[in-house]
Design brief:
This protein is α/β, with parallel strands linked by helices. The protein has 2 domains: 198 residues, Spore Coat Polysaccharide Biosynthesis Protein SpsA, Chain A (Alpha-Beta Complex), CATH 3.90.550.10; 90 residues, no CATH class. The chain is 45% helix and 15% strand. It has 14 helices and 8 strands. Helix 7 packs parallel to helix 8 and helix 9 packs across helix 10. The protein is globular.
Length: 344
């Protein structure tokens, strides 16, 4: 990461891989329309088709720093590429199909300047269609945010986050490509215990949700990698050696073939956490909520049958009524885009 002594105050980081032209233009326009102007806008063309270079070239703004790689280096690699070239004191993340509202950078810089202990700052957010997004109903202070990240799950909209460059540099941290597509959550977890977090209670980011997005198309892998990162962070923060991580990750991803081993591992972990007066019951509730979510959204009859007849159904207290409801409806009442069909 470059020395930011002579650089702009903020580096906005946006890797691109074949983002729809209309959405990409909205993203770029939203950065250039910020009320705060002391920034560089690092754009990485991650081996996209030719239209991306042409679209970026249509902008004449000296704050844009455009790079291109000839071979796609993946989402984590693209973000790390941008971070390595950033000169700003603060790193503002913005994915290439999302939108920063005009006051975003100004509000975040003012907060970070006033709170030097905060290394990671998110904002409330909405979907681009105006719907609620998860991070606008959750805690805003550091202890509560870290507790949620460790024992519940992700609560930060990636495109809303601003980080201190020196926090990453001093801790030698970056996005881990092995934890795709949960590499953003894994980075926040890596930073717990190493810096403070905050969440601005203002909607300053618009998130574009796609049923066909990379994360939605890789939900099982995302679930497995997210809980792996979560368990690693719990172990690091509380000096606990967590065993049977593979079985726990399989249980969290709804792998019925390993449910019995996963239940045994979860029971052991919850007991150990509770013994140390840590929120083991929150971990149990997290796994239970995930199992319920998978049951409700699994569409195939075969997938429903496997879930409803595996040991996890009884362990998580899913009664006969709930089992029958999921089995009969088979996901008819699913939320948009949240269904991952089982492979028979």
């Amino acid at each position: 990461m470059a020395d930011n002594g002579m650089g702009p105050q903020v580096s906005v980081l946006t890797p691109i891989y074949n983002t729809h032209a209309e959405y990409l233009r909205e993203c770029i326009d939203s950065v250039l329309a910020q009320t705060f102007s002391d920034f560089e806008f690092i754009i990485l063309d991650n081996a996209s088709d030719a239209y991306v270079a042409e679209l970026v070239a249509s902008y004449d703004d000296p704050r844009i720093r455009y790079f291109r790689v000839d071979e796609n280096i993946g989402p984590a690699g693209g973000r790390n590429f941008c971070i390595a070239r950033a000169r700003g004191k603060y790193l503002a993340i913005l994915d290439s199909d999302d939108v920063a509202l005009p006051e975003r950078l100004a509000a975040q810089v003012a907060f970070m300047d006033a709170h030097p202990s905060v290394g990671v700052l998110g904002t409330f957010s909405r979907t681009t269609e105006g719907g609620a997004f998860f991070s606008d109903t959750l805690p805003t202070d550091s202890d509560a945010i870290c507790r949620h990240l460790l024992f519940c799950g992700n609560m930060l909209c990636h495109s809303s986050v601003m980080m201190r460059a020196d926090v990453l540099r001093d801790n030698k941290l970056e996005y881990d490509p092995n934890l795709f597509p949960a590499e953003d959550y894994a980075l926040w977890l890596d930073l717990t215990g190493r810096t403070e977090f905050a969440l601005l209670p203002r909607v300053l980011t618009l998130y574009r949700f796609f049923p066909t997005s990379v994360s939605q198309q890789n939900l099982t892998r995302q679930w497995r990698n997210a809980v792996r990162a979560q368990l690693a962070a719990i172990g690091r923060n509380y000096n606990i050696d967590i065993e049977s991580v593979d079985d726990l990750a399989a249980l969290y991803a709804g792998d019925t073939s390993r449910a019995a081993d996963g239940i045994k591992a979860l029971d052991n972990l919850v007991g150990r956490l509770n013994e140390q007066k840590l929120p083991g019951n929150m971990v149990y509730d997290m796994f239970r909520g995930q199992f319920k979510h998978i049951c409700y959204h699994t569409h195939s009859f075969g997938g429903q049958w496997r879930l409803m007849t595996c040991p996890a159904a009884g362990y998580f207290g899913q009664g006969i009524g709930w089992r029958a409801f999921c089995l009969v409806t088979r996901g008819i009442f699913r939320h948009n885009g949240n269904v991952k069909k089982d492979k028979e």
